[in-house]
Amino acid sequence: VEGLKTYPYLNASVMDENIVFKKDINLGVAVALEDGKGLIVPVIHNAEEKNLFGLAKSVNDLAHRARNKKLTPDDVQQGTFSITNPGVYGGLMGTPIINQPQVAILGVGTIEKRPVVVNDAIAIRHRSYFALSYDHRLVDGAMAELFMAHVKAFLEAGNIQ
């Protein structure tokens, strides 16, 4: 959410030949259906108004209702940016596909302990690979990398409230 506030082009859409910036951040969260018959992407509306606990609660609620086929039409509409997690099945990374008319989607790989260099010493830290797919009509590689660097810095700083 913080990255989308800083880089609003990733929270926009292209309609005909116009760029439409979205005032709300409505996060689509890909949920694998338990019957193995694909994914559904319910939406956390007004995600910018929620703290981490509120987002986690919303994700859990939407995932539960999705798997029990209890979503309403409103639950799957008006997404402005999506997140998918191939890591839930142990995948390190994947190539997420944009949910049109959105212009970007973030894929989050599995979180696992890995050796990293910290202050010239090797330490064990939790790490994950992220993959961002984006529509080049609106977002170029430089903006995408700045967004990813912002997300990385935010997560590593531990400013999650």
TrEMBL record:
One of its GO terms (cellular component) is cytoplasm. The keyword Membrane does not apply. SUPFAM superfamilies: CoA-dependent acyltransferases. The keyword Acyltransferase applies. It comes from the Bacteria. It holds the Pfam family 2-oxoacid_dh. Keywords: Acyltransferase, Transferase. Gene3D superfamilies: Chloramphenicol acetyltransferase-like domain. One of its GO terms (molecular function) is acetyltransferase activity. Residues 3-157 form the 2-oxoacid dehydrogenase acyltransferase catalytic domain. Its cofactor is (R)-lipoate. This is 2-oxo acid dehydrogenase subunit E2.
